[in-house]
């Protein structure tokens, strides 16, 4: 138990860290979060939008824009992609709009990869920004996933694998 006189100092330092710290590995240096936090549920709401687009080759492209981080954003990704996987769709996740990714987001990708394997469908990652790709490399998850430089190359690999 901490003495009472430490608590205000410790709380003040934690609040300052919470408002100002940004991880250089997981966030795009050009994108900064608004200063000051809202309520516990998030005054700004989830900062991830997903859009699913069906293609002629039977795959679905999921456009991801925003942050894939702990709590609401990671849950939104998991819920949306899991629904598409249950439908038996091959997926291409367009990550060109992802500004930030943390350990929870990486964990969701691993979980989704495992769900896809049990459903006998595939998930391909496409158009990763350099800082997001760096996290996959740093955590040695890059070889686990099929990562493509563009959405078009990911779609063409799906078409080629369907022919064989």
The number of helical runs is 5
Please identify, by name, the CATH architecture of the domain at 51-163.
Answer: 2-Layer Sandwich
Question: Roughly what fraction of the amino acids lie in strands?
Answer: 15-25%
Order of helices and strands: HEEHEHEHEH
Uncertain runs are: 10-26, 31-42
Radius of gyration in whole Å, from Cα? 19 Å
C-alpha geometry:
globular
Amino- and carboxy-terminal Cα gap: 65 Å
CATH class of the domain at 51-163: Alpha Beta
Q: Helix coverage percent of residues?
A: 40-55%
Report the sheet with the most strands, covering strand number, pairing sense and barrel closure: 5 strands, mixed
Q: Tell how many strands the DSSP assignment holds.
A: 5
- Overall pLDDT, averaged? 81
Structural class: alpha/beta
CATH level 3 topology of the domain at 51-163: Transcription Regulator spoIIAA
CATH H-level superfamily title of the domain at 51-163: STAS domain
Strands of the widest sheet, in order across it, are: 1-2-3-4-5
């Amino acid at each position: 138990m901490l003495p009472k006189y430490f608590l205000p100092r410790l709380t003040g330092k934690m609040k300052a860290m919470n408002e100002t710290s940004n991880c250089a590995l997981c966030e795009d240096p050009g994108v900064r979060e608004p200063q000051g936090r809202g309520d516990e549920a998030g005054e700004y709401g989830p900062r991830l939008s997903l859009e699913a687009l069906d293609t002629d080759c039977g795959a679905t492209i999921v456009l991801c824009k925003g942050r894939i981080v702990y709590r609401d954003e990671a849950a939104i990704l998991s819920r949306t992609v899991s629904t598409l996987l249950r439908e038996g769709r091959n997926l291409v996740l367009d990550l060109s709009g992802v500004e930030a990714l943390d350990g929870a987001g990486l964990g969701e990708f691993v979980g989704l990869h495992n769900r896809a394997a049990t459903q006998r469908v595939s998930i391909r990652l496409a158009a990763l920004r350099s800082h997001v790709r760096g996290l996959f490399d740093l955590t040695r998850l890059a070889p686990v996933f099929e990562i493509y430089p563009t959405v078009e190359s990911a779609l063409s690999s799906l078409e080629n694998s369907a022919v064989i």
